[in-house]
Amino acid sequence: MPVLSLRKGKTLTTVHAKGRTSRVPPKSLERGADAAARALELVLTSVEDSKAEDIVSINIAGKSALGDYMVVVTGRSNRHVSAIADHLLRDLKDEGFGPARVEGLEAGDWVLIDTGDVIVHVFRPEIREFYNIEKMWAAPDEEETLH
Fold first, then answer.
1. DSSP state, 27?
2. Mind listing the pLDDT tens digit for each residue in 32-61?
3. From CA 124, how far away is CA 82, in angstroms rounded?
4. d(CA 41, CA 53)
5. If residue 54 lies in a helix (H) or strand (E), which one and from where to where?
């Protein structure tokens, strides 16, 4: 195994593997519900700071393997939607959550940000009204379950 000397007293060993190597994600100090709650708190603070409107948080733990929470917010325009998403991505990175998966940032109509624990949808008002995804994930009313 080759050894590279970077500085006096520090050595770096390199390992060469043939074929495909699996990538192991870094292990967080927080686990499960604590990490998800911290991520949710950060998301909500970030979108509020960006002046997002109609902020809705839905607990989807147990309903889906996608994550623990879903957050749905509205931006006033394509530019505002993109700015909310950019700000959130920067906050997530700055707080050590790493890069999130992002879809739709270029268009700015509907941006999806998946942090792993929290899925964030940032919509323009017309697009949010059309898809109405909060209704899909909302728990049924007690009256509906009795009939």
1. P
2. 678 889 999 999 999 999 999 999 999 888
3. 10
4. 16
5. strand 53-59
pTM attached to this predicted model: 0.72
Token duo for residue 138: 């909302």
pLDDT of residue 16 exceeding 70, the answer is no
Residue type, 60: I
Spatial CA neighbour of 3 closest among 69, 11, 23: 11
How many residues can be counted in the chain?
147
Residues 6+ apart with CB under 8 A from 126: none
- Joined together, the tokens standing for residue 132 give 């109405």
Q: How many angstroms separate the Cα of 20 from the Cα of each of 7, 17, 23, 90?
A: 31, 8, 9, 31
